[in-house]
Write a structure and sequence with these properties.
The structure is a homodimer. With about 130 residues, the first copy, chain A, is mostly helical. Chain A is built from five helices and two strands, in the order H-H-H-H-E-E-H. The radius of gyration of chain A is 18 Å and the shape is globular.
DNA sequence: TCAACTTACATGCACGTGCATTTGATGTCA
DNA sequence: TGACATCAAATGCACGTGCATGTAAGTTGA
């Protein structure tokens, strides 16, 4: 009835769903319980640390949006939450006053470094 | 600095995120645009057709919940939407009046059969 | 038989998301 | 210049979700 390739594709999708669901749920609850961070908040910090190495702080919202699976509006609100929590700062760009430069605060750096170990542990558990 | 296994785990997670996001977004929008179905609604129909083969209609809410990555409350509301759309019916079980038997209507069966080809095409595109 | 517990499902509520729109700044071209 | 398109980001809104709780039906044990 069904070509074998299609059966494989369904099985592959089921497996992807399973792994994604289990991993992201545990990431979400562990990061929330241990570090008061949502998963998307953590991911913004993660990208920020990669793009800000050496304190050049080049990370604009648009740069982060391009690296994340999050809409522009959702990112905007996630950044607002992180700012209210004192973990990042928004600075207006001098050369393009439409754009925001995002920068980790010392508190944000500390929080991220703690959370990083939790994140790594959960990934190892589910994907290792 | 980092053990190679951990780098692999991060890359694996990125890849899982990418595949999951791209596939589920396209499933969602295609199913919605072509068949007026959400992804979780489609998945309920999918499980229902598997469990109801030969019109035995044994599918209770709890059975479906066990096969899906959806909370009990979300499933309850998804079933309500499907019922309002005339695609399934709820019948009270004679032996346990707490439980619902779910059954596809002819309209639900037709809608599902149309949507199935869209679903299969999207999966093949992303996972084939 | 009755009180306490458990189960199946529904519902109130808060929250994060995407879409559409708005606001304000930056090109662009006549 | 000035009118118009484009862009970055914020915001109003509707929606689906999970958590906690409610409701009604079934189960257990003394």
């Amino acid at each position: 009835m069904e070509a074998p390739a299609e059966v494989d594709v369904c099985a592959k999708w089921s497996e992807t769903l399973r792994v994604y669901h289990n991993t992201s749920c545990e990431l979400e609850s562990e990061l929330q319980a241990r570090h008061a961070l949502g998963l998307s908040e953590f991911e913004v910090l993660l990208i920020l640390t990669r793009n800000c190495s050496g304190h050049t702080s080049k990370a604009k919202m648009k740069d982060i949006e391009a690296e994340m699976y999050l809409s522009q509006s959702a990112l905007s609100r996630t950044v607002t939450r992180l700012e209210k929590a004192g973990l990042i700062t928004r600075a207006v760009c001098d050369f393009d006053r439409r754009a925001n430069f995002l920068m980790l605060t010392p508190a944000g750096e500390a929080r991220f470094n703690e959370a990083k170990t939790t994140h790594r542990a959960v990934l190892l558990k589910h994907l290792g």
